[in-house]
Design goal:
The chain is an alpha+beta fold. It contains nine helices and 23 strands. The protein folds into four domains: about 1-80, ACT domain (Alpha-Beta Plaits), CATH 3.30.70; about 110-175, membrane protein fhac (Ubiquitin-like (UB roll), Roll), CATH 3.10.20; about 190-260 and about 330-400, no CATH class; about 265-330, no CATH class. It is about 25% helix and about 45% strand. The strands form six sheets. The protein has a five-stranded antiparallel β-sheet. Strands 16, 17, 18, 19 and 20 form a five-stranded antiparallel β-sheet that branches. Strands 2-3-1-4 form a four-stranded antiparallel β-sheet. Strand 21 and strand 22 form a beta hairpin. The chain is elongated.
Length: about 400
């Protein structure tokens, strides 16, 4: 498709409109006489279409025969450009060289798009693809896509499936990520249930094993709650099982946020500079543009691929925006420090509690300020499952035999 578009552009083509009572007959006559019309659409009884310069010259007899009128609306392609700039030979030579470069570079990969990934970063996938030969600028015929898929799937074990679709100079990588099973101890492995943290047991549900601690008792982190060693009436070990239980306990824990009262902030001066870099098929040309003389500045980098005739070219234009600032030391008031601490505490709670089976029954916050720091302490009272399984490390079959 890309080669066809380039050839049409080199030969020249026109956009034209046609209207009359017998448009369908006009289209059939043109097609039967091998006149190539494309991108045809009908709007309010008017035909919009494209055709080559040669075909448009031959189309007039069929238009007269079907009482259809035609009019050119746009002229596209190299012949019209060369005619316009016929007195500027340099531009003509440049256009021809550009067309030749496009034809040659169409044998290479110009763009790579990756979709379907969430946990595995796009950069990780790019690196794996590049390691096995697929990158912007790679020769398309030199890449064995079947072997590439196998190697990348082995390297990135979090991916369960990968599909590669090539379309012209573009490559689309579609992936599916593996749903990783949670870590667990096999049911035929003897284990105990212990306390994952300090707490007061308010509900105990034992599914397998011997209960050591009952509801209403307090436990410390690491205490044995349900034993996987089963005993007879005389206290002799008769079997080792995989103890399982849910231990809902009242827990108490705290988290402290500290905020320095004195901090350095950036005060932007409004002075900005821009620098540009052009990369073609992984070859980068030296940057051009303004240079920042100040030592204090932030840099923002934006890259985009160049499009020509609706085609993404292997030309990447990178703009580097440099913003100057002056470092200023400020001292926070207690209210300012508290506001910042509360935001940090909210971020902590989102990361610590979201998605977990924990019910916060109450929260108490206290604060303290010194000459250099503001401290915000949050004490939480919660109900949560503190059961954690731990392997006993004995042979269940030997225990049963005894």
């Amino acid at each position: 498709m890309f080669i066809i578009r380039i050839l049409r552009w080199l030969a020249g083509y026109v956009h034209f409109t046609a209207w009359g009572n017998f448009l369908e007959r006009f289209i059939n006559l043109s097609a039967s006489n091998k006149l190539n019309l494309w991108d045809m659409q009908k709007q309010d009884g008017v035909l919009l279409a494209k055709t080559s310069v040669k075909s448009y010259k031959k189309i007039r007899p069929y238009a007269r025969k079907t009482n259809v009128r035609c009019r050119i609306t746009k002229k596209k392609g190299l012949p019209f450009i060369t005619h316009k700039y016929r007195r500027r030979v340099g531009l003509l030579i440049g256009a021809l060289l550009f067309a030749a470069v496009l034809a040659i570079s169409s044998q290479f990969v110009w763009s790579i798009t990756i979709t379907g990934n969430e946990e595995v970063s796009t950069e990780e996938i790019y690196q794996a693809l590049e390691e096995y030969g697929l990158k912007i600028g790679a020769r398309k015929s030199a890449v064995d896509y079947r072997i590439l898929e196998e190697h990348v799937m082995i390297k990135l074990d979090k991916l369960s499936w990968m599909g590669i679709i090539t379309k012209g100079t573009s490559v689309l990588i579609q992936v599916k990520e593996r749903i990783m099973p949670p870590e667990f101890i096999a049911l035929d492995t003897p284990c105990n249930v212990k306390a994952a943290k300090d707490g007061f047991i308010i509900r105990l549900e034992v599914y397998e094993g011997k209960t050591i601690v009952k509801s209403g008792n307090s436990v410390l982190k690491g205490d044995l709650i349900v034993s996987g060693i089963m005993e007879d009436s005389r206290g002799n070990s008769i079997a080792a099982v995989h103890a399982r239980a849910k231990v809902i306990a009242q827990t108490e824990f705290s988290h402290t946020i500290s905020v320095p009262l004195q901090k350095t902030v950036k005060e932007y001066t409004g002075e900005t500079k821009s620098r540009y870099t052009i990369s073609v098929l992984n070859f980068s040309f030296p940057s051009f543009g303004d240079k920042m003389t100040s030592e204090n500045y932030d840099t923002e980098i934006n890259s985009s691929q160049v499009n020509f005739l609706g085609i993404t070219l292997p030309i990447i234009l990178t703009k580097e925006t440099i913003s100057e600032y002056t470092p200023v030391t400020v001292r926070l008031t207690k209210d300012q420090a508290k506001e910042e601490a509360l935001k940090l505490l909210e971020e902590y709670e989102t990361g610590e509690f979201e998605g977990k089976e924990i019910v916060i029954t109450s929260k108490i916050t206290t604060d303290e300020i010194t000459d250099s720091e503001y401290y915000l302490k949050a004490t939480y009272y919660a109900q949560e499952d503190i059961a954690v399984e731990e392997e006993i490390g004995i042979d269940i079959h030997k225990t049963a035999d005894k």
